[in-house]
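Translate structure to sequence.
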């Protein structure tokens, strides 16, 4: 099959032919229909997270497709099913899973790949194993994934829109619904209005927040944010964004969400909350970088600083519900697809993300 492989830290992907195995026990073979480009992929391409890269690596983790075949002991998923994949692959028996926190399953690393000693799922034309990013690897025409990384969805759901739910939408909406548990009537600031931030804005709107402040450097992003639920906008080019948010709210927001992955904006997100507020960091702050916040604020202001992994999802439940919200017209996904590209155009798609031109670019595999 054709796939876009990351071979080194040169900053681009190589589209090439690789071989994918047949499904073994617990595995699902999927024909990829669509895959979104997420900034978490870009962090591995642009080098900010390359310390964790195992080359060659097949990136991509926000995808939908149609099941082609299933291995032994796969339950509830069969050939022909429409599915979304999710990187929150879970074991189902560790203490994290058993207490409803399967998005931080302690066995994820073990369960997402084949048992040691078995042949790799993917090999390149030289017979070298290709690592699947997050156990998925959706920048290829097919995916071979553990069943606990796959959820069946309604055939009514358009697959090119469903792909976005695979990461960005579940992360942004989930951070609002599940991690921060935003209350109706509250105030929210979202810093960074890409795929994840726009989803957090939509989540805040659905949760009934009365004031939703979108923060981004790109005027076009702010315009899209308003179309999708933001009530106010802040451009850091017009002055300190923390001051601007304090002025708009008379003292800070109840909840802020950092959706970029920078030390500076993570610290700003903490600065934007009022007493009793919660700042949720979603962005992948570079490995080894620390965030500094005034220690006294934490207790004097009773403020909260927390992270959110994949929107604290229970994706087998959440993703079909997000599809229903789309089908009911309440979650806007069409508006989030700024560009549809082919697999061969993938490096242009990431350039568009770097230049802040798109909410999401989505690969259409032409299936
Ligand atoms: N926690 C998780 O589970 C999880 C899941 C998915 C993505 N992420 C991370 O979330 C972050 C956002 O992902 P995305 O795909 O939405 O990215 P994106 O590139 O689509 O969006 C980032 C946005 O931030 C804006 N921006 C950049 N610098 C800014 C600044 N200084 N001030 C204000 N705005 C600024 C850009 O214009 C852009 O609109 C990334 O770090 C990604 O890795 C985390
Ligand atoms: Zn992602
Ligand atoms: Zn587990």
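Result:
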């Amino acid at each position: 099959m054709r796939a876009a492989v990351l071979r080194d830290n040169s900053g681009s992907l190589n589209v090439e032919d690789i071989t994918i195995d047949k499904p073994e026990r617990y595995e699902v073979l999927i024909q990829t229909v669509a895959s979104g480009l997420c900034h978490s992929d870009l962090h591995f391409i642009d080098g900010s997270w390359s310390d964790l890269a195992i080359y060659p690596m097949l990136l991509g983790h926000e995808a939908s497709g149609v099941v082609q075949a299933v291995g032994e002991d796969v339950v509830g998923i069969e050939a022909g099913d429409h599915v979304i994949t999710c990187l929150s692959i879970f074991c189902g028996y560790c203490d994290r899973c058993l207490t409803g926190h399967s998005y931080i399953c302690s066995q994820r690393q073990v369960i997402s790949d084949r048992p040691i000693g078995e042949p790799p799922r993917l090999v390149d034309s030289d017979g070298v194993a290709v690592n699947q990013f997050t156990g998925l690897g959706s920048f290829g025409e097919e995916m071979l994934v553990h069943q606990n990384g796959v959820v069946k969805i309604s055939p009514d759901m358009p697959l090119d829109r469903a792909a976005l739910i695979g990461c960005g939408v579940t992360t942004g909406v989930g951070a609002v619904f599940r991690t921060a548990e935003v209350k109706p009537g509250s105030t929210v600031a979202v810093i960074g209005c890409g795929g994840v931030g726009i989803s957090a804005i939509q989540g805040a709107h659905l949760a009934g927040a009365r004031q939703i402040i979108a923060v981004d450097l790109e005027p076009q992003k702010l315009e899209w944010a308003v179309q999708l639920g933001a009530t106010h906008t802040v451009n850091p080019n017009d002055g300190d964004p923390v001051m601007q948010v304090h002025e708009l709210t008379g003292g800070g927001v109840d909840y802020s969400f950092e959706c970029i992955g920078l030390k500076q904006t993570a610290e700003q997100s903490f600065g934007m909350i009022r007493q009793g507020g919660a700042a949720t960091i979603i962005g992948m702050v570079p490995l080894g970088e620390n965030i500094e916040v005034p220690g006294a604020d934490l207790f004097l202001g009773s403020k909260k600083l927390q992270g959110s992994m994949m929107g604290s999802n229970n994706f087998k439940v959440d993703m079909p519900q997000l599809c229903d919200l789309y089908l009911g017209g309440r979650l806007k996904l069409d508006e989030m697809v700024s560009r549809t590209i082919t697999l061969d155009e993938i490096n242009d798609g990431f350039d568009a993300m770097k230049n802040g031109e798109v909410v999401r670019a989505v690969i259409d595999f032409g299936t």
